[in-house]
Specification:
Glyco_hydro_b, alpha+beta, two-stranded antiparallel sheet, Glyco_hydro_27, 5 strands, 3 helices, hydrolase, globular, glycosidase
């Protein structure tokens, strides 16, 4: 960053120190998202979430749990032209899935 970090606003400090957002770039498998849409400065990336048992979804910027979703569910968000959204999808599974080798 090209500014004095001692003088940044609390709002900017909260963004820079958001541990959930920082952790997004720490995928141990190194799996990158695939761009599925781009128009002007708008981009949409997909990680190919296919496990039908579902995922626990979290809005990283607003620090809100959005509940459980499956690959068939849709979620929409309205953004202005200077905004961004980030979500984390955590695999929802039970021990039977592991026994049956149903995790893909």
């Amino acid at each position: 960053m090209s500014n004095d970090l001692r003088t940044i606003s609390n709002e900017n400090k909260k963004i820079l120190l958001n541990k959930n957002v920082i952790a997004v770039d720490q995928d141990p498998l190194g799996i990158f998202g695939r761009m599925v849409y781009k128009k002007f400065s708008k981009s949409l990336f997909s990680l190919g979430l296919t496990y039908f048992g579902g995922y626990s979804v979290q809005d990283l910027w607003n620090e809100q749990q959005l509940g459980y979703m499956t690959p068939m569910d849709e979620y929409s968000v309205m953004l202005n032209h200077t905004s961004v959204s980030m979500f984390k999808a955590t695999l929802k599974m039970d021990l039977n899935d592991l026994d049956n080798n149903e995790i893909r």
